[in-house]
Design brief:
It comes from Planotetraspora kaengkrachanensis. This is Glyoxalase-like domain-containing protein. InterPro entries: Glyas_Bleomycin-R_OHBP_Dase (IPR029068), Glyoxalase_6 (IPR041581). It is a single chain. The chain is of the alpha/beta class. It has two domains: 45 residues, 2,3-Dihydroxybiphenyl 1,2-Dioxygenase, domain 1, CATH 3.10.180; 48 residues, 2,3-Dihydroxybiphenyl 1,2-Dioxygenase, domain 1 (Roll), CATH 3.10.180. Helices cover 21% and strands 35% of the residues. It has a four-stranded mixed β-sheet, covered by helices on one side. It is globular.
């Protein structure tokens, strides 16, 4: 019996806001849209929830960028906010427009 990760699902109170953010940040097309659900590319989805995020995520995505400075500037331009200082080996915690944490790391 094999078990594998099929995808990552991010909770959202505003599906369109987060779909725009993540699709533009990661250059992913919206591949499916259903009531309360948007799929981006092959492995990322957003699901509508009624409650806003209130505490730190227990899991997050690490995104790898060829150009750390350009990637963090693009994230900020799209509405993300830094949630920590840039670390010595070039990685930084960010929050998407609804506060979900992710890291941008230098490849």
């Amino acid at each position: 019996m094999g078990i594998r990760i099929n995808g990552i699902v991010i909770d959202a109170t505003d599906l369109d806001l987060l779909a725009r953010f993540w699709s533009e940040l990661l250059d992913l097309a919206i591949t499916r849209r259903e009531d309360g659900w948007i799929s981006l590319g092959p492995n990322l989805a957003l699901q509508l929830v009624s409650e806003p995020k209130t505490v730190k995520n227990r899991i997050h995505c690490d995104l790898v960028a060829d150009d750390f400075t350009a990637a963090t500037a693009r994230a900020a331009e799209l509405g993300a906010t830094p949630a920590g200082d840039i670390q010595e080996n070039l990685w930084q915690v960010w929050q998407d427009p609804e506060g979900n944490e992710f890291c941008i790391c230098m490849s």
